[in-house]
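Following the same procedure, backbone shapes were mapped to integers, yielding the entry below.
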Amino acid sequence: MRRTLPGKPSGRGSKGTKKRSVGKSPGRVWLLVGTKKGAFILRGDRTRRRWNLAGPILLGNEVNHLALDLRDGRTLLMAARTGHLGPTVFRSTDGGRTWKEARRPPAFPKADEAASGPAVERTFWLTPGHRSQPGVWYAGTSPHGLFQSEDAGITWEPVTGFLDYLAVLKAREGFIGATPGGPLTHSILVDPRDPVHLYLGLSTGGFFESLDGGSSWKPLNKGVAAYFLPVKDAEYGHDPHCVALHPANPDRLYQQNHCGIYRLDRPGETWKRIGRAMPKEVGDIGFPIVLHPRDPDTVWVFPMDGTTVWPRTSPGGRPAVYRTRDGGRTWQRQDRGLPREHAYFTVMRQAFTADPLEPAGLYFGTTSGKIWMSPDEGATWRSLAADLPYILSVTASVPA
């Protein structure tokens, strides 16, 4: 049974950010924000100087991811974990004004009566399919699962080839498949040149590739460190935090891993640890990685304290973005406008994003509920919104 949710207008946001009804768009850039207590949409004008904050949507419920279908410019999907409906997907076809629950959300096949099977605990990641496949979407779940919709998110079916492959992996010694936040299937990537060429990440599990639309898979983890595994140079069992494929050069991939920052140039299969060039006092541990929309050599990361106790805060309480313009050979600190001390937050894997404008705008949401923006590719930063719930995801889109 589908439930319908109205977009809910609220009072006022933080200074300089006025809240308004979800369905009205004053401008060009949309920031789709998922939090532990609902979703929000920030809409900016063409100058990116004025922003309006809409929401909350599904207040009080965990929203892991929101994504806009740029193939039609209006369909939004929202991956939510609700208190009474459980893990599900909501969809909007009017730009976020109203929402309906999927008729058949992602769910694992029922097990035999004598066996117990997995159950979806949360839908974690959403990716629209190839531009030649209108209506196709992919979803990653916890526990590990890959699902596909062919009707724009109304109904979902498991990608059986992935589930079969996952069963084989789980039976092998050395496959861990769990993290403190639970096993997460994320970074679902579609090669813009080929709709059946897919990638995805498993934490913990590794990074994997399919050349046939998900019917078969192979690991793609050579060169990636995994200090927590008993086997050196393991084939699988790694912990990618976020992986991105460059739209201007789909043979270039970047990865922020539990054990460093990496780059892969296809058809090669061995990752290079480009994070070794980061300052030693900062390290190369974090969750997100963001690519410049046009330059395959420009990348941003948001480091966190990855020392022995893993506090998951900004190193030294001094948050900063780091940028490379040469594919990872050198990195520069970008912190102008960010707090100088005693700022103990971090940024989750889905909560850092870039828009495709010129110059590219950068946006990140923090675990302390604040959204930061740079209109000049990281040179300066300012706050767009504050006092939101713990932010899980931020996605920038420019609707047609």
About this structure: The CA atoms of residues 32 and 41 lie 5 Å apart.
